[in-house]
Design brief:
The chain is of the alpha/beta class. It has one domain (about 10-284): 4-Layer Sandwich (Metallo-beta-lactamase, Chain A), CATH 3.60.15.10. About 20% of the residues lie in helices and about 25% in strands. The chain has helices at about 10-20, 90-100, 115-120, 190-195, 215, 225-235, 255-265, and strands at about 25-30, 35-40, 45, 80, 105-110, 125-130, 135-140, 145-150, 170-175, 175-180, 205, 240-245, 270, 280-284. The radius of gyration is 17 Å and the shape is globular.
């Protein structure tokens, strides 16, 4: 098996539940593709989790590895944040059972995608529509952090008829600790400026699977590649960069070691880490 979980099932769920860190620190777990679980100050926030299978038209699986656990097994989730409406980022087969297992959970999606989840059966009260440039306060009791949506160019910027961006990334501000989740995007000067406006990032989670003619011919929209990802990490002054979106979907993989090569050769001294499936990272 090419891809193996470092931790999964009850072992991974138990670690997420039991992890308790000082306010100056946050824990991140990698759950595949652009899926990250963040725990800070008692708040548990999921970004782009896909905890269900993905299928080809002939009903065979498109996933390179199994899911780590069922969405209904994941309890204690306060917020789930989705970057855009592609099935490897926002999937009702994950979101609906995850919401039912966590009735108080709120789901943040780009404003143009709220209606699609209501039609899929999610309660309207559970949904928060995100708009680029408009901060969302994430609360649990007297604890809170800020979620700042940033426009993303999944090859290009796309808006609905009201000017709302369909593709978003997010800066999660846990007091002085800032975590950037890029969603799917290319590098643009606007993106660099938008992210830099939020200050240096403690961690930047970026897609580096790239784009090419062959994948375009199969209808796959691309992202920044490893070289652009390394350049972007240097421009936004990320303390630690996590290259992602390299492994889950058959036919859309990339070798993250190429990202490591560009970082070592072009931006020596800058930190990066290639996450293993189910691995925990502590940031501060």
């Amino acid at each position: 098996m090419r891809y193996m979980w470092n931790k999964k099932g009850d072992r991974l769920l138990g670690e997420i539940l039991k992890t308790d860190l000082p306010e100056s620190m946050a824990a991140l777990w990698y759950v595949g593709q652009m899926g990250i679980v963040v725990k800070w100050n008692g708040l548990t926030i999921c970004f782009d989790p896909v905890l269900n299978d993905l299928y080809h038209p002939d009903k065979t699986s498109r996933r390179n590895y199994e899911i780590p656990f069922l969405p209904e097994e994941f309890r204690g989730v306060d917020y789930t944040v989705c970057s855009h409406n592609h099935r490897d980022h926002m999937n009702e087969e994950t979101l609906i059972p995850l919401w039912k297992a966590n009735p108080a959970m709120k789901v943040v999606v780009p404003e143009p995608e709220r209606e699609s989840l209501i039609l899929a059966g999610m309660g309207e009260d559970a949904l928060i529509g995100a708009k680029a440039g408009e901060t969302i306060i994430l609360k649990k009791g007297d604890r809170e952090c800020r979620l700042c949506p940033v426009a993303a160019a999944h090859e290009e910027y796309v808006t609905d008829e009201y000017g709302n961006q369909k593709y978003l990334g997010y800066v999660l501000k846990c007091r002085d600790l800032h975590i950037y989740h890029a969603g799917d995007t290319m590098v643009t000067q606007k993106l660099i400026e938008d992210v830099c406006a939020h200050g240096p990032m403690a961690v930047a989670c970026i897609p580096v699977n790239g784009v090419d003619f062959e994948r375009h011919s199969r209808g796959i929209i691309g992202n920044m590649d490893c070289r652009d990802g390394a350049y972007f990490a240097s421009r936004i002054h990320a303390d630690m960069t996590l290259p992602m979106h390299t492994d889950m979907v058959m036919g859309n993989e990339e070798n993250p070691l190429m990202f490591a090569q560009y970082m070592r050769e072009m931006y020596p001294g800058r930190k990066y880490h290639i996450m293993q499936l189910g691995e925990r990272l502590i940031c501060m």
